[in-house]
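User: Hello! I'm new to structural biology and keep hearing that structure can be predicted from sequence alone. Could you demonstrate with Fe2OG dioxygenase domain-containing protein? Please show me the input and the output so I can see what each looks like.

Assistant: Of course. The first part below is the input, the amino acid sequence of Fe2OG dioxygenase domain-containing protein. The second part is the output, the predicted structure written as tokens.
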Amino acid sequence: MQIKTSSTMPTSPPPAENNGAAAAYFDFRAAERVPESHVWAGMHEKDTAPVVAAGDEHDDDEDHDDDEPGGDMRDGHAVPVESLSRAEEQAARLFALPAPDKARAARRPGGGSTGYGVPPYLLRYPKRMWAEGYTFPPPAIRDEFRRVWPDAGDDYHRFCSAMEEYDAAMRALGERLLAMFFKALGLAGDDAAGGKTERRIRDTLTSTIHLNMFPRCPDPDRAVGLVAHTDSGFFTFILQSPVPGLQLLRRRPDRWVTVPGTPGALIVVVGDLFHVLTNGRFHSVFHRAVVNRENDRISMPYFLGPPADMKVTPLVAAGSPESKAVYQAVTWPEYMAIRDKLFGTNISALTMIRVAKEEDEES
Ligand SMILES: O=C(O)CCC(=O)C(=O)O
Ligand SMILES: [Fe+2]
């Protein structure tokens, strides 16, 4: 199945002052109601046109047939299910640890996003998400989680091995998907101009894992698991569990589509830098996570992107209708700096680096 999406910017709330003290997680387990600090009043109403079951979504005549989908469910992904379920099981064990154990791996000042706690960019919102989480680059797994399990016993080793196995599986999938995408774009093969670029991108792909826990919520309509955003890198894999919660934004009319809880299915979310790389032929997709009253939900998004020093330059296929690059070449940090400046506005960072009109641009 395919879910077509594109890159409208939904409304976002005004920025808040960064408040370090707010970085600590609230005790979700004990909550009998959603406290003011976590209430996103009006957010769902304003952003959510009726939520449509994804199964009703396949026919899509009003969309652009020649665009590639921004979000795509692939359940024939050939990733060993044991690798996925072992990682999920270990993530669940991690989140079930007592709060002080989890907090030992807290994000360090100046340490970027790595660690446990509210990521710096989420602290800029006036309200907190109904979620807790870890962020780490796979090479840091053993160091990071030694903080949670200082004795480096069996629990530590089981966790690290499961995450390393997950990393290897997702990375291999990322490399395969990259090859498929290049083929779909007519850029594959040794002779094509894209062949060299493909190899360079594949050989330098960087990755980050998020482990998100969205606890069940006494008033899910007034809380948000993760606010609407696009991922900024190339693409992200989000494994689906039986508990739904991921929503993708679909256009015309704008509405949030709930991805069904299909265990073992992987959603591929296209990020902004892949939008740039493909010169707008693949659209980055707005998505968010909602919470529910009955069940906790764990997600383990796996992000793939370029190294920090790589200029991402739009690939223009010979003989394709887009004969000119639509976007300026940017590195990931340059792009993030633009996104950062635009926080709290409804201006998309992609618009800021656009140098020519996209063929399919909405008028
Ligand atoms: O948990 C999900 O389904 C979405 C997570 C996500 O979009 C993210 O961490 O960037
Ligand atoms: Fe995301």
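User: So the tokens describe the shape?

Assistant: Right, they're a compact way of writing down the 3D structure. Reading them back into a model, for example: The first strand starts at residue 2 and ends at 3.
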